[in-house]
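User: Hello! I'm new to structural biology and keep hearing that structure can be predicted from sequence alone. Could you demonstrate with Alpha-galactosidase? Please show me the input and the output so I can see what each looks like.

Assistant: Of course. The first part below is the input, the amino acid sequence of Alpha-galactosidase. The second part is the output, the predicted structure written as tokens.
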Amino acid sequence: MPDLRYVPEQRLWLLHTPSTSYAVALDDDDNVRHLHWGARLTTPAIREPAAGSSFDTAGGPRELDAEGGARFGPAGLQVRFADGSRGVEWRYAGHDIDAGHLRIHLDDRHHPLRVTLHYRVYDDTDVIERWTTVTNSGEPITVQRCDSASWTLPQRPGYRMSHLVGGWNSEFRLRRTDVPVAETVFTSRRGMTSHQANPWLALDDGATGEEHGEVWSTALAWSGSWRITLHRDPAGHVAWTGGPGHEGLTWTLGTGETLETPVYAGLYTGGGFGAASRAWHAYTRRHVVPHPAEVRPVLYNSWEATGFDVDEAGQTALAARAARLGVELFVVDDGWFGERVSDHAGLGDWTPNPDRFPQGLRPLADEVHRLGMLFGLWVEPEMVNPDSDLYRAHPDWVLHTAHRGRTEMRNQLVLNLARPDTAAWTHAWLDRLVTDNDIDFLKWDANRAFTEAGWPGHADPDRLWLDHTRAVYQIMDRLRADHPGLRIEACSGGGGRADLGILARTDQVWTSDNTDPVDRIGIQHGFSQLFPAQVMGAWVTDSPNVATARRTPLRFRFHVAMAGALGIGGDLTTWSEDELKEAAELIEVYKRIRPAVQHGAAHRLTGDGTLSAVGYAHEDQFVLLAWCPSRPFGHDPAPLRLTGIDPAAEYRDTDTGAVHSGAVLRQSGLDLDFPQGDHASVLVHLVRVDRKG
């Protein structure tokens, strides 16, 4: 059972995970103070905050810093009461502990406001889940900021921060730099998680590596706008606070209403960035994704083959070729509905185009099932083209502001799913579509940010920034409950909505629209900091690549994509018989190594020059995928040292039959037999052997 303790004589709570501890306590003014987050301990030492000058912030670090008093750092809770006053003063109102869940209740000393700090720990992970609820029992309150949690670090001389940046076609680029003496804000104001940033943040003491050193990292389980504020003061104190929304938004909390924030989870490890990632991966499998024991099927997506030129005959022909390769899931992408012959029209009219599918989608779905594959479909439920029957009938259903224009991006607008009528209509057509066509898989896309995010006539219009995302969650949850066999891929122009919130109701993420394998190595490296390979959609597409025009061998493209949930996205009608044969063989290999890739412990590896690799340790197997995009003449990489290998064991290479000592593989490394030339890659499948055998 999870280990949570309350020490009444010290007014202290101590939370234990398998290898870490977290401790907080009440001070004399009933503020919840942070004491410890790190290696496991018995009882933390309670120290009075060091006295500073009369100009310094008063007191020590708090668990959720609220506006009020001599506090000048970023406040995670900001409210304005009906009488115009701001700030809070707390009175402890009790706590309760239930099956790993701690709630600490705090009441304002004057106003009818209650805040509850939530903590949840498990017995199989060091991840700690935290969130906040705010309840108003009096006159309406204006909430200007309500973060999920604040996190505080012990003092160290040289903290670094790691975070993910990017853009469309260039998501999840890892950046690692010193923490400045300043407030650093990471945010998305787009209504989506965003391509540009991700609500994952890691800090280390400046000396941590992939396999050694302390790491404190956090991840916000939220798919809308978000904000994280990291603060390092001149004295070296480091803390950060984060939650949903962004600056400028306000929410009204009426009488009897409660605002609950999403989970903001945190993890400490002493084993380096690799151990931190593996812990996040395990937590995501055990406590986030809906069906962690499943393996993700090899899919084919028709987009790059057909674009908007989608019809029953063409898709049927592609399905036959995909089935020959060993594909297990066939997905029809954009262009199957309404007047959708380009991205200018039809979005929102979710009935099959009668010229392209005279009998609807059912004949194609039946043929795909007859070929032994699952049937999937692309949808974009949150968006609408102005040139559509839906928009002409309901122009008020989109996000808009009175007396302002409606900005079109990608020739589309955003439906306001915070409206109950819009959300009900959306669920109804999705439910009907899945039922009528026996759909197994939805690729759920969301291809533009919020603009003119208003709700004319609504008393609390900024609520849509919260309620739209919650409506997406609720629709997905209802669909999955009513259709237990349905699986969903989260997509937002690629990786624009990838977070633990969306993964709680989807099965995988479309990582990026950029399928160039050289670019994908970096994208997948960043993605792996938080997310497991099991949820990372990765396709093999045509050469030259449509995004970069780079030419790469089919084997190299496969080896990069095989590091995640493998998909095929090329135009199979143009592939030669030799290419089709090689692809079928590589898909067969992937199916053999898939349990290790999707369920194993991932070890990121770096070699000489451009050599990088990832190894997956699972049960008695170790699967290595290594890539060398370029190398000068005469400079073959040195042997690659394999972390994740048991040094006391021996391993047999399933292709060559060679047996290797685990100790040698870890210390001296494995010689990799790369083919000549650029864009070289290798796959090595090792199986543990009995020394006596």
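User: So the tokens describe the shape?

Assistant: Right, they're a compact way of writing down the 3D structure. Reading them back into a model, for example: The mean pLDDT is 95.
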